[in-house]
Amino acid sequence: MGRSPCCEKQHTNKGAWTKEEDQRLINYIKTNGEGCWRSLPKAAGLLRCGKSCRLRWINYLRPDLKRGNFTEQEDDLIINLHNLLGNKWSLIAARLPGRTDNEIKNYWNTHIKRKLYNRGVDPQTHRPLNDSTVSATIATAVPPQAQITTSHNNVIVKDVSIVSNNNKNNYANTKINGTKLVCEDSNSNSSCSGVSSDQEAYQHQQLNLDLSIGLPSSRPQINTDSLKLQQPQDGDGQQETKVTPSHGVCLCYSLGFLRNQVCCCNKDIGNTVTTAVTDNSMYRFYRPLNI
DNA sequence: AATTTATTCAACCGCGTTGGA
DNA sequence: TTCCAACGCGGTTGAATAAAT
């Protein structure tokens, strides 16, 4: 059994694309537009698998691609977005015009990982390499796809917006900093509420959480020059690297049912995770950026 | 100059998701 | 509701190139 192959393998080319193949693909897409990748190779006269054509176009031939080295600003943005999203390369790429998910993924693996290691930061967790203090209690209480990080005394649960079940009865039932959040289907006139409870275990039902991430509309862009790198020397000769952002950065996790919400917060919130309920049953979580 | 090792990145592969029949 | 083709994503591979010996 198993999945059938995406195309006939016997009569397809593999490996590097030739200039002629590139030109055929460009010409075809210019005339007919993107899409219907399965039938494209035959229509374009290419002995390639549809997937291969799609990848070649998206990662290399698209006219809006930016070529050349990544800038420092792009580096910082990638690091920040990865901190938020994890290895969601397509989501990260969506915030970097002209860059592809594949390009960013490669760049991450070859450059940024090393850069972060040199800073003493674990590229997966974005925490200091010698910091292993994650609350075991909370760690067992969040869905497997969520990411947990700590910032000072706060536990930050990220990436809880993976599952979406539109128009069904949905329950988001999770616990952050001892506050259990319940979000129910807006179609049934219910709303989100925060219920303090340190005792209740997480019960992961079906999440219906929209994640929107954006810099606050009324704030200036992050000045990366203001991120101060400190390397205090402790008694054992071990070094601990801390990066102290001079501003908190607003990261809005919108849990609810309205899409395309734009962050509207404009308050400095220091180093704590705070929550607020908006009038459209949205929860927003703010945290300072911690590189 | 030749060989080995490391690095980069385009391309592939497999799997999860989506949407139409 | 179920099935399945197509799409899209993330992890991995391997050829090409650069750097080191």
From TrEMBL:
Q: Which residues form the Myb-like domain?
A: 9-61, 62-112
By its UniProt entry, which InterPro entries does this protein fall under? Homeodomain-like_sf (IPR009057), Myb_dom (IPR017930), Myb_TF_plants (IPR015495), SANT/Myb (IPR001005)
Annotated HTH myb-type domain ranges read 9-61, 62-116
> What's the domain of life for this entry?
Eukaryota
What keywords is this UniProt entry annotated with? DNA-binding, Nucleus, Repeat, Transcription, Transcription regulation
Q: Where is this region: Disordered?
A: 221-242
Q: Which terms does the record give in the GO molecular function aspect?
A: transcription cis-regulatory region binding
Q: Where is it found, in Gene Ontology cellular component terms? A: nucleus
Residues spanning the signal sequence: none
| Keyword DNA-binding attributed | yes
Does the record's keyword annotation contain Ribosomal protein?
no
- What Gene3D superfamilies does the record tag this protein with? Homeodomain-like
Name the CDD domains for this protein: SANT
Q: Where is this protein localized, as stated in its record?
A: Nucleus
Its recorded name reads Uncharacterized protein
**Organism per entry:** Vicia faba (Broad bean)
